[in-house]
Write a structure and sequence with these properties.
mainly beta
């Protein structure tokens, strides 16, 4: 295996040079490195609490995190599909499950959350959300994708979500009695969690398969600062430098 490790602003991108295996029916894919421009790559971590109708009667609220990577890419040649795999979040304490969520086939103009499949602005039932092992975006036939699970011919933006739950709990009525108010972006502070327990690294692999049976791949990694997340209830971290190619 041959790898090229590129560091930028403390964030590493590992470009894998390992050839994919082939089946008896298809010729082996060939590596086509330095064919995709990384225009944007960031992840936003957001804390929230369960507030769907079934959870509202209880004063004890469960806090969860959503991690929303956003990756904007432009390729030098037509894309067949893009696969996100090997997603990990380590180390993360005080949680029972980390679920990878794929976007559903909804139009990019719809007012529906493509990951929770509920109307934007409404509270989702996170216990009902189904996880997947990887996320695939189909290459489109137009310059820009029309659906959340598609990519353009050569360019587009891909998004997926990690749902981490539970990360803690708090008593809603006790907070109201103590503070005479409730602030959504303080839900992590209400749990009593410390910043150190919210430090974690999110890592995943992106493989772009081209229509000419070649591919390129990169593993992206970024560190989320628990102190920022605890203080603001949300933080955004970049994966790599704009303009980098893989």
């Amino acid at each position: 295996m041959k790898r090229l490790l590129v560091w930028s602003m403390g964030v590493g991108i590992i470009v894998s040079m390992t050839a994919c295996g082939s089946s008896n029916k298809k010729p082996a894919q060939t590596l086509s490195a330095n064919t995709v421009n990384l225009i944007q790559a960031s992840v936003t971590a957001t804390a929230n609490f369960e507030d769907h109708p079934a959870a509202r009667p209880s004063s004890t609220k469960t806090v969860y995190l959503t991690l929303d990577p956003v990756i904007s890419l432009k390729a030098d040649k037509p894309v067949q599909d893009i696969v996100i795999s090997a997603v990990s979040v380590t180390p993360l304490q005080n949680t029972e499950s980390i679920r990878l969520l794929a976007p559903s086939h909804v139009a990019t103009s719809d007012t529906v959350d493509p990951f929770f499949n509920n109307a934007l602005g409404s509270a989702p039932d996170i216990t009902a959300v189904k996880a997947v092992s990887n996320v695939t975006y189909a290459g489109g036939t137009q310059d820009y994708p029309l659906y959340a699970d598609q990519f353009g011919i050569r360019q587009g933006m891909i998004k997926f979500r990690l749902l981490i739950s539970p990360v803690g709990t708090f008593d809603y009525q006790s907070i109201l009695a103590r503070d005479h108010a409730f602030t959504n972006n303080l839900v992590l502070q209400y749990t009593g969690l410390k910043a150190a327990s919210l430090n974690f690294v999110v890592t995943f692999t992106v493989q772009i398969n081209f229509q000419d049976n070649s591919y390129t791949t990169a593993t992206m990694s970024a560190t989320v600062d628990g102190a920022q997340l605890l203080q603001n209830g949300q933080t955004t971290v970049n994966f790599g430098a704009v303009g980098q190619k893989f």
